[in-house]
Amino acid sequence: MAAVAAAGHAGPPVRSPALTGLAPRGRANPDWLGRLADAVTEPGQRWPPRTGVRLVSYRPDEDRRVAFTGSPGPTNPNLSGGATFSEALRASWAIPAWMPPVEIDGRTTWTAAPPPPPRWI
After folding, report:
1. β-pairing verdict for 64-68 and 79-80
2. Does position 9 have pLDDT exceeding 50, yes or no?
3. Are 26 and 94 in contact (CB under 8 A)?
4. What is the 3-state secondary structure (H, E, C) of 13-56?
5. Helix, strand, or coil (residue 110)
6. Residue 33 buriedness (CB in 10 A; 0-12 / 13-18 / 19+)
7. Does the structure show a pLDDT above 70 at 102?
8. Where does the pLDDT of residue 114 fall: very low under 50, low under 70, confident under 90, or very high at 90 and above?
9. Are 80 and 68 in contact (CB under 8 A)?
10. β pairing state of 64-68 and 107-111
C-alpha cells in the first residue's frame, strides 16, 4: 500500500471486508485446534482458568474486531464472553482460503483484520 501511495495514486486502500468475501472458503481441518484448546482447559470448563486470556477475531458483517475473553465485557461491545475457548481459538486462526470461518453467537467470525488504513489528506 505504501508503494501505491508513493506512486501518487489517490484514495484509500481496499479494506479487508471486501476481500474476505472474494477469497474461497478455507478447507483446512481445524480439529487439531479444538484438541489443543481442550488440552489447556479444565474438564467441563469453557475457558482456561487463567484470567486475562484474549483471542482476537474479526466479524466482517459488523466490520469490527472482537476479543473473546471467556467472560462478558459489560461496557465494551468488542469483548465477548459467548464463545468457548475452542471456538475462539479456531476463529483466531480462520484465515480466508486456508482455515474455515467459525460461527459464534450466530455471526461469522474470521481471524483478526488488519488495522484500519491511514487517513488520506
Report:
1. parallel
2. no
3. yes
4. CCCHHHHHHHCCCCCCCCHHHHHHHHHHCCCCCCCCCCCCCCEE
5. strand
6. buried
7. yes
8. low
9. yes
10. unpaired
Residues in the chain: 121
Contact assessment for residue 13 and residue 51, using Cβ atoms and an 8 Å cutoff: no
For residue range 50-83, list pLDDT tens digits in order: 777 888 888 888 777 888 887 765 556 667 777 8
**Predicted TM-score of the model (pTM):** 0.70
> How many angstroms separate the CA atoms of 98 and 84, rounded?
22
Name the band, by pLDDT with cuts 50, 70 and 90, for residue 90: very high
List phi, psi (to 5°) of 67: -105, 120
The DSSP bridge pattern shows strands 79-80 and 102-104 to be unpaired
The DSSP symbol for 75 reads: S
**Rounded Cα distance, 77 and 116, in Å:** 18
Asked if residue 11 has pLDDT above 50, the reply is: no
Q: Which neighbouring-strand residues pair with 67?
A: 56, 79
